[in-house]
Design brief:
Blueprint lengths: L13 H15 L4 E8 L3 H10 L3 E6 L2 E7 L5 E9 L4 E6 L3 H9 L2 H4 L3 E3 L4 H14 L4 E9 L15 E6 L3 H12 L2 E9 L3 E6 L3 E7 L1 H23 L2 E8 L2 E7 L1 E4 L4 H13 L2 E9 L4 E8 L4 E8 L2 E6 L5 H14 L5 E3 L9
Antiparallel strand pairs: 1-5, 1-6, 1-11, 2-3, 3-4, 4-5, 7-8, 7-9, 9-10, 10-11, 12-13, 14-18, 14-19, 15-16, 16-17, 17-18
Helix pairs in contact: 8-9
């Protein structure tokens, strides 16, 4: 199955390509359109080099849009259109190939295996806010399907059996009302939502930045995609504000100074146990950990086994500060932030700390 074919046009940027698809996609393909979005600290050249190392080749260029492909098995070839946003360091794959085949087997792994790359994390809070906004703007809008989860050890409130790990798959036209009910009763958070605005749009969105157009107005779906991107960029901006520099304080005396990112949240001492457990379950090793009751204080050196790097955290009841060490990686921060939201406080917010480093 080949990807839909675009005429040999030149596109100046991603928005122009999106407008073209909004006008013409229904004539280009009868299949669902998937947009897989990610965030990176790599340059476009570095990102494309990583794709080439994994067997992806450019089949055709359309200005700022590239059609790429990879033969990932003897009988299957994955294809997609790629846009790299150099200003925001975001990237988007567009394809109408199969989610269970080409997308899951060849495209999605790129967001997990390339250093300096992560899927565009759309938090449960953002998923809920966008859904409530759609419902407020469109009286006929409904959630027809959702998958909501409660992770082991989480401190997210639940009225019923809060110690239970659970997943709820729901199908029905009253999905939004049901989602509100099960969130309160069972403490689950949405991971996947399917939204139907009758006569206008039917689309699906998940927390890993995958959008699926099933039918209706693609331009309207792009509006919701842009809104999710705007809110998710706060996480990237917090990461971008971190840095490490060597400061010479005297001749032959150099110290390393780190600027942290800050995660605002409500943290109680009883949250620390579940947080440490969740970090360890996700390939983080905690070293030299110190935790104190009273006015909550927590500090630890943390080793990310997946990316082979260290960082430090210091926390009180109002915030966690994340200090990079010798090197840093955007996926380490995104994964850590997601764990904090799913385990401690779904309303946790990233914040950039922009103060100057000491001059040498």
């Amino acid at each position: 199955m080949e990807v839909f074919e675009v005429p040999p046009d030149e596109f100046e940027d991603g928005p122009e390509f999106n407008r073209y698809l909004s006008r013409n996609y229904s004539a280009l393909s009868d299949d669902d359109l998937y947009i897989i979005s990610g965030v990176t600290e790599l340059t476009q050249a570095e990102f494309e080099e990583q794709l080439e190392e994994r067997g992806w080749r450019t089949d055709r260029e359309y200005g700022e849009i590239k059609k790429i492909g990879r033969q990932y098995s003897q009988d299957h070839r994955a294809e997609a259109y790629l846009h790299f946003d150099q200003d925001e360091q975001l990237f988007f794959f567009y394809t109408d190939q199969r989610k269970t085949e080409e997308i899951n087997d060849a495209v999605v792994p790129l967001l997990r295996t390339i250093r300096g790359v992560h899927y565009l994390y759309i938090s449960p809070r953002i998923l809920k806010e966008v859904t409530e906004q759609i419902a407020e703007q469109n009286e006929s809008a409904k959630v027809t399907e959702f998958i909501a989860k409660r992770t082991e050890g989480t401190e997210i409130p639940a009225l019923e059996r809060p110690d239970e790990e659970r997943t709820i798959n729901y199908y029905g036209d009253d999905g939004l009302r049901t989602l509100r009910e099960v969130e309160e009763k069972y403490g689950v958070l949405p991971h996947i939502l399917e939204i139907d605005i009758p006569g206008e749009l039917n689309f699906r969105i998940d927390k890993e930045g995958v959008f699926k157009l099933k039918s209706g107005s693609l331009s309207l779906m792009f509006e919701y995609l842009d809104e999710c991107i705007t809110q998710c960029l706060d996480i990237k901006e917090a990461y971008d504000s971190t840095r490490v520099e060597d400061i010479e304080i005297a001749e032959d005396n150099v110290v390393s100074q780190s600027t942290p990112a800050r995660i605002e949240l409500d943290l109680a001492f009883d949250d620390l146990g579940p947080l440490k457990t969740s970090l360890q379950d996700n390939d983080y090793a905690l070293i030299d950990t110190n935790a104190e009751r009273g006015s909550v204080y927590f500090s630890s050196k943390i080793y990310d086994q997946e990316n082979n790097l260290f960082f430090n955290v210091r926390a009180d009841e109002n915030a966690i500060r994340v200090f990079p060490k010798e090197k840093r990686d955007i996926s380490t921060f995104f994964r850590f932030f997601e764990i904090v939201q799913s385990t401690v406080d779904e309303r946790a917010e990233p914040e950039s700390i922009n103060y100057p480093l000491a001059s040498s």
